Amino acid sequence: MADFLLEIGLEEVPARMIAGAEAELGRRVNDLLTRERLLDVGSKLTTYSTPRRLAVLFEGVLPSQADTEEQLTGPSWKVAFKDGAPTKAAEAFARKAGVAVAALEKVTNAKGEYVGATVKRQGRAAAELLAADLPKEVLSLYWAKNMYWRAAKPERFVRPVRWVVALLDAAIVPLEIAGIAAGNTSRGHRVLHGEHSVLLPFAKSYKESLRAAKVVVDVAERRQSIRKALDAATRTIPGARWREDEPLVETVVHLTEWPSVVLGTFEPEYLALPEEVLVTVMRDHQKYFAVEDAAGKLAPHFLAVLNTEADEKGREIIRHGNARVLRSRFKDAQFFWDFDQKTPLTGRVESLKAVTFQKELGSYHWKTEANLSVARALAVKVKTASVLFDEAALLKAVELAKTDLTTELVKEFTELQGVIGGLYAKAQGLGETAAQAIYDQYTPASTEDAIPKTVEGQLLGVADRIQTITAMFGIGSAPTGSKDPFALRRAANAIVKILAESGLPLTLDDVVSSSDVDGANREQVAAFLRERLHFYLKDVRGFAYDVVSAVLAAGAGDVRDAIARAEALTAARESADFAAISAAFKRIKNILRQAEEKGFALGSPTDVKLASEAQQLADAAAALAPQVAKLREQRAYGEALAAIATLRPAVDAFFDKVMVLDPDAAVRGAHLGLIDGVLLGFSGIADFSEIVTA
Amino acid sequence: MPLSTVSSSAVSSHPKPAALTFQELLFRLQGFWADRGCVLQQPYDVEVGAGTMSPETFLRVLGPKPYRVGYAQPSRRPADGRYGENPNRLFKHTQFQLILKPPPVNVQELYLQSLEAIGIDLSQHDLKFEEDNWEWPAGGAWGVGWQVMLDGLEITQFTYFQQCGGIDLDPICSELTYGLERIAAFLQDVDSIYDIVWARDPETGAPVTYGDVRLAEELQFSVYNFELANIAKLWEHFNLYEAEAQTLLAQAGALFANEDASPVEKRRFPLLATYELALKCSHLFNLLDARGAISVTERVGVIGRIRALAVGVAKAYALQQGS
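Above: the input entities. Below: the structure tokens describing the complete assembly.
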């Protein structure tokens, strides 16, 4: 039993790509060893990574494949041996099997006597197999962006490969990756260890040998030590907490080999800048953690995660340097803020003509005009439903929503568009309602994000997005497959989410028709939104696939209604009666389809005298229909579905006793009319035939 | 919001006496890389937006011939001017640009040694290579690499050039671009670029600051770039330079397609001059942009025109090198 270690030494890999590559490398090595029968029972895979390396340690690798024995059967004995002497056929078979003619055996089976050969294959050594197959596995790793570095450009990889370690226990596996022969030496931390190599005496010594060279190769360990160091540094300020930020933790974990943390300070005067700006500068531009006081208010401190361990003097230099950069960034932000106030948002509408929205469509000025027209149409619908909102504030928000694109602060912090507009609108006295709507216009940015807080913000968010979607569809830029360069799916997801989670009295059709959209394009956009609603119900709300299909088949316009129906259906499908009804509806659909194929006409149940089971079903359905309709109207979907389930005995008896496709055309027509009526009458909440039954 | 009341830095802005002056910083970098086999070039004497645009980079990276060169390049970005009022922004900043073609395997280690050479003791600092890919669409050029962060400050752009002038490079090269003002301000621990000590009198120790040397230039060029540059004239200049470049490119096209043309004829064709004309267009575009004179609809088109010139020169240059 051996341990196998592979380490690919690289120039700094982009932090965002490391976790995926580490997992993929583990998977590829595992698959290779499994395929080649080199894994022993209880073998254990561990993967490691830092910005400068990807590594895999496999404990429990077989030194070589097990030998195998295979029985081959050849031509019949009579053909192979004439008078005891081997014929050409025997020689050919022996050659093919790789054995001597003398080693051929007689095999007797049910069909008679044949020539047989026992072929022994010696297992190949792990080192040999790895050397042959591992390099191409490594070079097949997926990277979001690749590069060439060697002359004649033999391979592409994320960054240049600088060293390779491949060890089976203490023995070097003779493989070569990107022109680098594997060895048993790695490299330590650039500064703390320096350029001399790190000898790895055997595979399993990897983690500890690297630790001695000031590299923590275990990602989870680095994550934990960073969190602890952040806690410890923050504790020096009474009552303070560092602001939790998981994506940022992951980023710094993948930017460090030997992490430590310094706490820095900035001048409290900068706290007068909006918190959003301060946090963006710290998090996005500097990768610092923000610190808040006990009340959750931002404190004039920051936490920088370092990729080194300096002495007190060094820490002071580093702290000072980072504070200096942060101060100049804050100073810049303040300069931009002050500068931007010279031209209020209301004076910037014209300058939107110089900001492209989309080449073929026009500027953000054009976009603003179009958004206004959509918002007005939506406002009419919302007013009709007597939802209270401030229409003047809405229109002001729509008109000014994009003006922050012309400000210096947004040019500097593009991720704060909308937010900056909202802050400026508030600072410039344009009203709390309009300001909040502008501030929230890009939320929800993801399916986890909250929707805008106010009706005005929700309407602006819907108007802006549906305008974008219809305009993009109009110039043939609808998303296709995995390509969605304008993030239209995200925009549509946001519309669905806003309709689902707000009180806006708007259906998807209302939304589509508010935008200036014609014929085929309109149907395309409507289908796109329905598809996004399907996604929302299934992937965001977690409803079962068949429930979603059943509910949407019965109507997809009203998003909140669709959710209510899906909830009721999810609860109802648990009952045995309901499952039986679903199965029966599916059967009805099939029968009706067959009937149509055969050209059987639909009649009316009253055309003939029905058999008693058929008559009982007709009576039960007639009695139930008004009750279900009433419950449906009251949106008491749970009760409505329970009522429909009471049809089960009548339905079961009908299918048990009645031959639906009766040879008599009149009887058959009456039966078909009966089940068609049942299907139509009770499918308004959901198309039960979509429900998958056991 | 009372933002204007924020006071200036609470931290001392006196430069440390030991820190290198601006010009010493340049001397050290030049010396370091000269010792490692680099040709030291002078700044290119035509307006460029970045050291990459100098022919010492843009054209030399093409073709198979190894080359190592370093030069300080004043880089003009008219729209970035702030009348000398912003302590961190300049219309014209200085890049120390280095091309290593092909890149040595220890290029990162050499780079770290160059930091030690300018007085940065890495054991007392935090250094990270963070992903940052570079592209210049108008030059058909891109590469992958990092921004090098020292105590949270971006001090260098480190790029493995992959394509230039729309041509795939082989060999590729590494490009190191040191931001001299930033590094000097960091070394001297000053909060404003204008407080950087450019030179110091060897007798008296009296400083000449960056502001003494360059403030008037920042102010006056901001006024010209933003207020006074004559838009109609700028367009006229643009069109003239473009027309001449196009004429030369057409001649080059005919020449390099002609199998009977002699090697001498090909070698003496002035592609280097053609490239200067393209650079002129690029600078005029930047001026027009700063002046707010490029409309949305025009913008992409004008960039396309510059690209046609730059890529045209690069393609012809590659043929000339091969001839």
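Note for the figure: The radius of gyration of chain A is 36 Å.
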